[in-house]
Amino acid sequence: MKKVIFGLAVGFAGVSGMAQTAVNRHVVVLHAARMLDVAGGKMVVPGEILVDGERIVAAGTHVDRPAGAEVIDLGDTTLLPGLIDAHVHLFLHVGAEDMQTVKESVPERTLIAAGAAKADLMAGFTAERDMGSEGAGCADVAVRNAINTGLIPGPRMRMSCNAIDLTGGHEDAIDYNPAQKILSNADYADTAEEVVKVMREQRKGGADFTKIYETGRDSYRDGVFHSMYQYTEAELAAAIKEAERTGGGAGSGRGVAVHATGEPGTGYAVAAGVASVDHAYQLSDATMRAMKEKQIYAVPTFAIAEYFADHAATPERAERGRAEQKFHAAEFKKQLAAGVPMAMGSDVGPFPHGTQSRELELMVQYGMSPAAALQADLLNGAKLLGWGGQIGELKQGYFADVIAVPGDPTQDISVLKKVGFVMKNGQVYKRP
Ligand SMILES: [Zn+2]
User: Fold this and answer.
1) What is the pTM of this model?
2) 300 Cα: distance to centroid of ligand 1 (angstroms)
3) Measuring CA to CA, which of 47, 100, 237, 362 is 20 to 30 A from 194?
4) What are phi and psi of 2, to 5 degrees?
5) Does 246 lie in the same domain as 360?
6) How far apart are CA 392 and CA 401, in angstroms?
7) Residue 383 burial (C-beta neighbours within 10 Å; 0-12, 13-18, 19+)
8) Peptide bond just before 409 cis, omega within 30 deg
């Protein structure tokens, strides 16, 4: 109803050519001491944004203040675009990652996922890509739709339904008695034909994109990383062809993303033309070159690895986790030097929703400048999710997804933990 009134008001003002007023319209002016110029990696001082409905009308050091506009003065803070997390699991929460998918019903998990979406939004994440509902099928589509219709608060979402995996593969219930028929957290597909069939079923269920487990269990021993591939390059190519058939080209947010930790699976995925390689602990020189050339993003997911090491069941497992993270951090430096484009993805879910800005701190700790980490999050994240040119910057015509933090995130990335203001689509969800 509100939408209709807003639409009419805009139409009337446009037709009449009269000076537009903010009556009956949601026009907001945001003012703060600073504003992030994302692409330039620098501060605009002071920062102001004029928001009309769901879009940014103007942004700079000074914007017009239309009569009747609500002016929100955020004081000594920095305005920046809403953060983007390219690897989340709304359908996972802290606790035994595997047993929750066995014990909790899909309706129960869906309600919990709605809470996770809210927690992420309130922490400043206004756009996310959900990398698998982990056995909840296309229930994630219901969450996305409820967010989009305003029923529940949450980020703009790209959903994949379940991930796709082999029989006995990475996400299958391989530690359980097969006779008990414990279900995989993913959808089974063992051939190219089966992958395409599952993709079609997921699209019918409302999926935006496809997640495939390209590597199975891996191990790190004596400084050597071992990773087992799951699908051949030809099988992945069939998946990508199917995604492209339904509009899943580069930058569409509708392609194929893989869980892939190392070679040869990472190389197969890149050769086939995936949108992103998530985890990416180890990439060969040839794979890194191809990722730079094709602009395929690596999504490091350091935060989940840190959390698992910090919460390991035994000191030995904690130590192994830390050694693996150290190895990944060294590989990450090589990837940066090779020009592999990065996107930010935390793998939040098994660790608490709303705490995933930790991932940006770790990207900085392991070698990126704060400005470069923010560009990876915002510019690359927007493109990876298929919203390039619409989110990730504070520019005229972009969606009004805006947050505010104290301090200067290009000097101290940890201020992203203290998001005090959240606007998504022009609507204020959190204010000081
Ligand atoms: Zn994940």
Assistant:
1) 0.94
2) 11
3) 100
4) -60, -40
5) yes
6) 8
7) buried
8) no
Per-residue pLDDT tens over the stretch 378-432: 999 999 999 999 999 999 999 999 999 999 999 999 999 999 999 999 999 999 9
- Which residue do the tokens 């990508």 mark? 240
How many whole angstroms from 355 Cα to the centroid of ligand 1? 15
Average pLDDT, the chain: 93
What is the distance between the alpha carbons of residues 64 and 368, in angstroms, rounded to a whole number? 36
289, burial (CB in 10 Å: exposed 0-12, middle 13-18, buried 19+): middle
Q: Which residue has the higher pLDDT, 344 or 25?
A: 344
28-65 pLDDT per residue, tens: 999 999 999 999 999 999 999 999 999 999 999 999 99
The predicted structure's pLDDT at residue 95: 84
Q: Phi-psi bin for 409: left (phi > 0), alpha (psi -120 to 50), beta?
A: alpha
Provide DSSP, 350-404: SS-TT-TTHHHHHHHHTT--HHHHHHIIIIIHHHHTT-TTTSSS--TTSB--EEE
pLDDT at 17: 37
How far, in Å, CA of 194 to CA of 189, rounded? 5
Same domain for 218 and 102: yes
Boundaries of domain holding 424: 2-82+392-430
Integer Cα distance of 385 and 214 in angstroms: 20
120 CA to middle of ligand 1, Å? 16
Q: 305, 328 in Cβ contact below 8 A?
A: yes
CATH number for the domain harbouring residue 404: 2.30.40.10
- Please check whether residues 112 and 41 belong to one and the same domain: no
Residues 212 and 195: beta-carbon distance below 8 Å: yes
pLDDT cut 70: percent of the chain above it: 94
CA of 122 to the centre of ligand 1 (A): 21
Q: State in Å: Cα 131 to ligand 1 middle.
A: 6
d(CA 251, CA 253): 6
C-alpha 346 – ligand 1 centre gap (Å): 8
Residue 327 alpha carbon to ligand 1 centre in Å: 19
Confidence of residue 196 (pLDDT cuts 50, 70, 90): very high
**Centre of ligand 1 from the C-alpha of residue 88, in Å:** 6
